[in-house]
Amino acid sequence: MAEKEDNAFQEDDHRAAYVFNPLSDGTAAAPSAGAAPRPAKRRRLPSKKAALSGGSEDQPSGFVSAGFLPLFNGLESPGAVNLRRELFEAAWPVLEGRVQNVLREANRSTLDEVSTFLRAAEGEKDKIPAGFIITGPNIASQDLLFEQLAETLCKGSQTRFVRLRSAEAPNLKATLRKIIRDATVRVTGDNEEGDDVEVSVGQDGRRYLDYDLEALHVSLKLQQSRRVIIAFQDSEAFDNGLLTDLIALFHSWHDRIQFSVLFGIATSVELFRARLLKSIARHLFGAQFDVVQTGAVLDSVFKSAVAGSHALLRLGPSLLRSLVERQQDQVAGIQVFISSLKYAYMCHLYANPLSILLADDARINRELLQAEHIEAARSLESFKTHVEASVEARQLNHARSLLDEDDYLVEQILEQARKRGDYLLQLLRSLHLIAASGLISTPFTDLYITALSEGIDLTSEKASVLDPLQRLGPDEVISLIHRLLSAIENGSPELDLQGWESDGDELVASLSEIRDEVEALVEHAKDNRKVLKSKYSAQSRVLRTTVVAQKVQLSHDTATLTDEDKAFTEAIDRLAGLFSQNVNCEPVASLFLHEAWVYDSKSPYRDVFVPRPGITLSRALSRPNDYLGCTCCSKANGTVTATMPTTAVLYHLYLEAGALINVADLWSAYYALVGDESDIGMDERTALVHFYRALGELRAMGFVKQSKKKADHIAKLKWI
Amino acid sequence: MVRRKAPEREPAARSLRKRELPIDPYEVPDDTDSPKRHRQTKPPSTTTRSSAPQDAHADDASHEAASEAQPTVEPTPTKKRPGRPPKASFMNGQVATPSALRQKKVAETPIKLKGINGVDTPSRRNFADRSARRKSARALIDRVVGGAISDDEGEDGGIAREIYESSEDEEDEEEQQSQDEHEDPNPTTPSKTPWKRRKATRTRKRSPTPPRDLPSHEQYFYQNKPGLTKTSGNSLSSLDLLTHEEYFSVLRQIKDLHARDVQFLQSLHSESFPQWTFELSQGFSACLYGYGSKRSLLHQFATYLCAKGHLPQPSKIVIINGYVRTTSVREILGTIGCAIDPSYKLSSGTPVALAQALLALLSSTSTTIVLMVNSIDASPLRKAGTQSVLAQLAAHPQIRMVCSADTPDFPLLWDSGLRSAFNFVFHDCTTFAPFGPELDVVDEVHELLGRKARRVGGKEGVAFVLRSLPENAKNLFRLLVAEVLVVMEEGGVGDVAEGPAVEYRMVYNKAVEEFICSSEMAFRTLLKEFHDHQIITSHKDSLGTELLSLPFRKDELEAILEDLMS
């Protein structure tokens, strides 16, 4: 069959590129397919644009629905499939919008600074204003920044903004051409296809070469604007000579066209300046701008997209940890993080039938849950632990009903949606309180991950919150309580957490009570000219030195506490008690049916975003049976057998060989394995064809190269 | 100085030593060894001997000769003078200032001189070991001389012994035997234990199998150890290498043992088509990697996508074959442009500008383009410029991209900027399917072996080329073939490297005789045509005579001639 197919599209296989035509199977019709329908299409361009804006919404969705397949071996009802699809379509765009918002906000201050600088530099006569924007090593995130810069700087003012990437600027001529085209095309507005020739015709009908800055000058004069901002996005990648030429050229035109330049710099301004000639650098007068560091951006993206209450799906702790680690260890851009996030959503809603439980109560009902859903729920790990726990707690009826009665289970399942909401609220409030208290300096990301994996329990040994809390002085206690109260009142916009004054009136009341009490004590102490202290505070411990028989003895001594101090100590204890009582949550894995709304599988993420092609390839070649599953090679178990694919055999020999391989020996080794006297009994020419093919493949995959050291020798290139 | 003296005294002994010593120039001189005794028995007489410059010169020369001739004594540690710049002193010596100072120098330098001169440089692989070995040798000797060895020194000695012997692996067993015997009767050998140890280490190191299961980096260093690359002198000369013709004719008859398994594997992969479609729809690009050709898998995927509304309408699938040697960005962009709007013509300009124009065109329509790139890591596409254009295309919302990668290092193609523009998801698609058009096996292998790549097409290729040429070109080629065959029959003319060749002048004369062409100009034009198709080669011999030859074997030539005559 493969052979037949081969013949079918053989001709196309030798062409560099072609339009795939499923009907013709690519034989004769394919080349002409492009040329046949030639009716005037140019005229329809505007109408097509209209169609695009109108029709774009339903088309992608049609595409998407085709992507979702019924699960449970195709038994899943269409309703459930649709629900999953709709869930995904509803959840992700919201989140994506928020993330984009966060990213844009993160650059805001840089943008303001840059535009202020450029505005201030407007009148500069001799020098070209230059903004050096330190973007950091991640070139992937630069795009957004420069896009925003273009938006901000072009807004209102008569300014042209040209973005240059090193790939687009191979030489001076091409660069100038691009600059002129970009700067003039914007003028003509939305007609992006406006012919350059038109633009470059001046008032007096003169025509200019498309790399002549005169053309730009004329066109700017027509528009009454004199300002052009050129942004070099990846300035490190530009050729030194090109930069020098461009700056010199800009400078000589400076009296007619007001150029400003922006450089995206990944390393440092010093290094950049070292590349320029002094005489050229003198033409520039500049300022340096820093962009918010990736870490900070990651933190806010994390808060809004992962931890925030808007996030429909929860990512599990182990996945999150590996995501965050990847951000920190490898310089993967924030875009990678967002893609991974999206992929997690896709995986969960695409492949987990129980993900329909993420829908709110109104959407999900008894009919939607098929027998398969219930079956799936019963096979969950958390279901088992829950049943076991209830058996141990002697709730046998509950356990039996869960196991036997579908309706009872469905009830429980539906109830968990509410429980999930409660849990998340509690989690976020606790985290928010901890963060607001300012008692520990752990980044929010870590805090969140730890809370998910281990829960929050302030009374446990590991928690390091209460200790600093107890050591606080009276003033700090008061300000802490203020902070907590305002946190409760305002919630957290970043996390999308509303204030919960009404829910937590008890907590609020007790907090205010403690605050009043402490304030009173402070007042009282002030009257007595004493300092209020608790038994935990450092001052209460006195180090006493006594000299006994010419030896110094050190002894700790607890200073006596006054009544006020005791009262303060008690207040602090109460505060700590209150805090630990209100700030707590369970680890997410302990919850019943958490699998439906927590996605914590690392493997698809790792496979899909961090591939290890070398390992994959060497595994395929060293143990082909893993993939082929054939009976003939199953006995090999890591060794060579004659039945293996030739490349695999050669790969084994390759591994055993040294850095230099004699092809003649390789051939005789191979032929000894498969040749006349072996089980396979291949004749020499056939074996040689196999051998050729395998050797060719090894070379194409970069395992070997020609060696000139000895005749018929090849050199080994890979040690995987 | 003794060293200098010794050869003069007994040249026979010197030459003898010279012959046997290179095997191991650092051999521990035991008490029976001569040089040491020489040194002791013959106290330095140099200073007294040479007082005149003339003499010193002669001395110098003889000394040089001696140093060349006698690698033996060099390592004898007692001679070493640390801290002297030996080269400088050697230079000084050459200037031949007749003074006491100079004489002194002459007396002292010889040891170092030799080493610096490089006359006696041992093979490069020994070089690094040298000083360590010298030191350990000295340590051993010191101990022997010192005589007294306490037990706690034993360990140090062991280490020194080990270093000293570490590069003696190649020594013969016999030799060792004799040494041991030699050692045995000697009662003064201070301790036997090191020798026992030595035997133990030797057996360990002699294990013929290379260490197994080393981590790959260790493996690298192990296999690249200097001196370890020993391969046999066998060559493929006895083997008749394959021609294209034979390769394909045999290939057609081969039945793949694993065809069914490969098919099954592919069907497994094709089960992920819906998933891939979904990923593509979400703005990801898919990259398939793993061993085996993924061309037919992608083709199936394209068929699947076309089948029933998996793509928004209107849509086009453009397949790019990265492995085709002529693939260029321009052609890719042209095809895409053609897919968007059949009347689209690429303007001139840089690829990046072209791509931008193309994307602008795409944005103005509602077409969705699916780019399928076979072998995105094939050499025609490897240039950074090409990859960035592809990334630029892939980043467009109306373009979805699927590509396959064959090499294990393909992620190196993209920096983080390109990577995020592509927004790849990777899938392990090991297919085990044989590479077809992706790989020109015969050329690839011949290039690997350093053989002159036989020209593509063989007999059929020539026939094909000739078919499109005028009649007298065919006649000329027939003439050439016939002449070359004649030369082959006679055997001899032309050098071996280029195969049998015929003289240009002679062929021209014959061509004129046969009215194939009338002027040399026309003759050249015809030949150029052949050159362009690589069906002839020309070169000049040592006398400057221009020779023409055909890159074919005899039987091929005969077949071609037959074709031409019929």
CATH architecture of the largest domain in chain B: 3-Layer(aba) Sandwich
Measured by DSSP, the beta-strand proportion of chain A falls in: 5-15%
Q: Distance between termini of chain B?
A: 86 Å
- When the domains of chain B are counted, the total is 4
- What Rg of chain A is obtained from the alpha carbons, in whole angstroms? 35 Å
Can you list the strand order of the major beta sheet of chain B? 2-3-4-1-5
What is the rounded Rg of chain B?
37 Å
CATH superfamily of the largest domain in chain B: P-loop containing nucleotide triphosphate hydrolases
How many strands in all of chain B? Answer: 8
User: Judging from the principal axes of the Cα atoms, what is the shape of chain B?
Assistant: extended
Proportion of residues in helical segments of chain A: 40-55%
Query: Largest interface: which pair?
Result: A-B, 120 and 128 residues
| pLDDT averaged over residues of chain A | 78
The CATH class designation of the largest domain in chain B is Alpha Beta
Q: Structural class per helix/strand content of chain B?
A: alpha/beta
Q: Using the coordinates shown, work out and report the CATH topology of the largest domain in chain B.
A: Rossmann fold
The portion of residues assigned to helices of chain B is: 40-55%
GO cellular component, one term (chain A): nuclear origin of replication recognition complex
Domain Origin recognition complex subunit 3 insertion (chain A): 369-519
Domain Origin recognition complex subunit 3 winged helix C-terminal (chain A): 616-719
Family (chain A): Belongs to the ORC3 family.
Q: What does the model show?
A:
- The complex is a heterodimer of chains A (720) and B (566).
- With 720 residues, chain A is of the alpha/beta class.
- Chain A folds into 5 domains: 1-34, no CATH class; 75-97 and 293-461 and 594-611, no CATH class; 124-292, 3-Layer(aba) Sandwich (Rossmann fold), CATH 3.40.50.300; 466-582, no CATH class; 613-716, Arc Repressor Mutant, subunit A (Orthogonal Bundle).
- Chain A has 31 helices and 15 strands.
- Chain A has a 5-stranded parallel sheet, with helices on both faces. Chain A has a 3-stranded antiparallel sheet with strand order 13-15-14.
- Chain B is an alpha/beta fold and 566 residues long.
- Chain B has 4 domains: 2-121, no CATH class; 125-205; 259-428, P-loop containing nucleotide triphosphate hydrolases (Rossmann fold); 458-565, Arc Repressor Mutant, subunit A (Orthogonal Bundle).
- Chain B has helices spanning 2-9, 11-20, 34-41, 46-49, 53-69, 86-95, 100-108, 110-117, 124-146, 154-165, 173-183, 193-205, 216-223, 244-253, 259-270, 273-281, 295-307, 329-340, 351-363, 384-394, 416-422, 441-448, 458-467, 471-490, 504-513, 520-532, 554-565; strands at 285-289, 315-321, 368-374, 399-404, 424-428, 501-503, 537-540, 546-549.
- In chain B, the strands form 2 sheets. Chain B has a 5-stranded parallel sheet with strand order 2-3-4-1-5, sandwiched between helices. A 3-stranded antiparallel sheet of chain B has the order 6-8-7.
- In chain B, α10 packs parallel to α12 (193-205).
- Chain B is extended and about 70 Å long.
- The termini of chain B are far apart.
- Residues 1-122, 148-157 and 167-206 of chain B have low confidence and may be disordered.
- At the A-B interface, α1, α2, β1, α4 and α5 of A face α13, α14, α15, α16 and α17 of B.
